């Protein structure tokens, strides 16, 4: 290799070295960029620490809430007035809403047939027919009329199945429909028992599962349920 070729090779090597150094310099973040990135990571870490569950703090908060709810329950039992603001503070949003929902149901109970929707009246007629066939089956069985008793029993089951389907359809088309019932709608259409069927909350029969409560008693029941969930750890 002559001198001219050596010089040309050295020039190419120097040029390549300069390009590599420039590229590395361009890729290396500046001090400001390093500080900004570090600050961003620090803020993210602090935010995560704030939102991360702290068992000790959560336990203290649950204990504090339980004490306050017990105080509220005692005041309600003693007939003292408890402000809605206090209830709203120590009950969850869903629990506080239960008070209004339960009181609305109590008002429906007291309204009787005056405001009862026709859909409930139609259901009560279906339930009455099922009760008729049930009683008829029992009477025929007592007299030894097995075949007649079976026919009446099947008629009762047919009425009950139709009533369950009716309840399910009405509850889907009108969510407020179920607020007129004293219990949940049976899920099984077949083999449903008469005792499983919901009753209208306006009914005065012995099978109705709802009680007439005052506004204070409604609040007490909601607070007691909230306390029970706290104790059981299901809140």
Q: How would you characterize the overall build of this protein?
A:
With 235 residues, this protein is mainly alpha-helical. It folds into three domains: 44 residues; 69 residues, no CATH class; 80 residues, no CATH class. It contains eight helices and no strands. The protein starts with a helix and ends with a helix.
Would you kindly provide a brief summary of this structure?
This protein has helices at residues 3-27, 31-51, 55-77, 84-90, 93-111, 118-142, 146-173, 215-232. The chain has 235 residues and is mainly alpha-helical. Helix 3 (55-77) packs antiparallel against helix 8 and helix 6 runs antiparallel to helix 7 (146-173).
Q: How many domains?
A: 3
Radius of gyration: 37 Å
Approximate strand percentage:
under 5%
Alpha carbon gap, first and last residue:
87 Å
What is the H/E string? HHHHHHHH
Any low-confidence stretches, pLDDT <50, length ≥5? none
The proportion of residues forming helix, as a percent range, comes to: over 70%
- Output the number of helix runs: 8
Shape: elongated
Describe the main β-sheet briefly.
Answer: none
* Total strand segments: 0
Mean pLDDT: 84
The helix/strand class is mainly alpha
